[in-house]
Design brief:
Blueprint: E1 14-16, E2 19-26, E3 29-36, E4 40-45, E5 51-57, E6 85-90, E7 106-110, E8 113-117, E9 126-134, E10 141-149, E11 155-165, E12 170-174, E13 191-193, E14 204-206, E15 210-214, E16 223-227, E17 231-238, E18 241-248, H1 256-259, E19 262-266, E20 271-276, E21 280-282, E22 287-297, H2 307-318
Antiparallel strand pairs: 1-2, 2-3, 3-4, 4-5, 6-11, 7-8, 8-9, 9-10, 10-22, 11-20, 11-21, 12-15, 12-17, 13-16, 14-15, 16-19, 17-18, 18-22, 19-20
Length: 321
């Protein structure tokens, strides 16, 4: 049985092929793990979470947002904006989504895989887990998210994987394949707005194939939109480094927020890239999984934010051409 504040460590340092997982301290958290293959690295803290706090090339910038005022903090009964990559439940609600993840998590290392499992949330009765696997070479990462219902009653929810990106970049999310009026008489996908969504804001650019949103530290008004794409993927270009994330969605199932498999949010501090799983009724003891695949790419230059240019530069990297 998991006991908060204790760690289960099967191996202190594991090396398999080119992937190394080792304990480390990180920015005030003493009990973290570094996963690296010599090209990229991830930092997962076990003092809170589950959270992935860093993803970047070795000795280079962290692509994920960090909040200096909460680095190294743990404990407390309120949810804190800490940054990095986290797992929530959708639809968004104060009771479920904002359950604190400030307690120690159980870490299990097996080969080149790290599994981080939080204690059951007292306020919701659910338990969240991330399983992270880094490729032996290159930058590819697979993150499996699992939510388990420990209540004695069934609950309905969707897994919601959320990545806070460092400020100053531009995101672009792919719409499903476009067509013509003659070929597609029926609608193909939603483009969802929130009450504060304002497409006249200059941070937005709506193309035929992509929804583009720029993070601007000088713009304080939040913006958000959502969409559905069976092959959900999006990118974030920060300087000349490109972060890509991808997940799969099932058009036959019901998704949160009027049918979103992907959502993006920004304010003056960060931009968030969010994938969602389908709404799922979880019986007591049942779990639901949601998987994302990530990659990083150096020396990426986009001359202009047009569909043809994004296609030319990015599609090979996503694996769609």
């Amino acid at each position: 049985m998991f006991q908060p504040g204790r760690l289960l460590i099967l191996f202190a340092v594991i090396t398999q092929a080119a992937v190394t997982i080792e304990p480390t301290a990180y920015k005030g958290w003493p009990n973290c793990y570094r996963i690296t293959n010599g090209e990229v690295e991830l930092i997962i803290t076990s003092d809170i979470g589950p959270r992935i706090m860093r993803y970047g090339f070795l000795n280079e910038e962290n692509l994920f947002k960090e909040f200096p005022e909460t680095l190294g903090k743990s404990g407390g009964d309120k949810w804190l904006p800490i940054g990095g990559h986290r797992l929530w439940t959708a639809p968004e609600s104060t009771a479920y989504s904002y359950a604190p993840d400030n307690s120690a998590v159980q870490v299990k290392v097996e080969g080149s895989q790290l599994e981080a499992t939080q204690p059951v949330e007292p306020s919701t009765g659910i338990q969240k887990q991330m399983t992270i696997r880094l490729a032996e070479a290159g930058s590819a990462v697979e993150v499996r998210h699992r939510i388990t219902n420990h209540n004695v009653w069934a609950i309905e929810l969707a897994a919601w994987a959320m990545t806070m990106m460092a400020p100053g970049g531009v995101s672009f999310a792919a719409l499903p394949p476009r067509g013509t009026h003659e070929e597609n008489l029926l609608p193909t996908n939603p483009l969802v707005m929130w009450a504060y969504t304002d497409f006249s804001d200059p941070r937005w650019k709506l193309n035929r194939k992509y929804v583009i949103l720029r993070q601007d530290p000088k713009s304080t008004t939040p913006q958000k939109t959502g969409l559905f794409n069976a092959d959900t993927w999006a990118g974030y270009l920060l300087g000349s480094v490109l972060f890509l994330k991808r997940s799969e969605a099932d058009a036959a199932k019901t998704y949160p927020d009027f049918g979103c498999s992907y959502e993006t949010f920004t304010n003056a501090e960060f931009l968030e890239m969010e994938t969602l799983g389908p709404m799922t009724r979880l019986a007591p003891g049942a779990s639901v999984d949601h998987t994302e695949r990530w990659s990083l790419h150096r020396n990426v230059r986009l001359e202009q934010w047009r569909d043809a240019e994004i296609d030319r530069v990015v599609l090979d990297k996503v694996g769609l051409r």
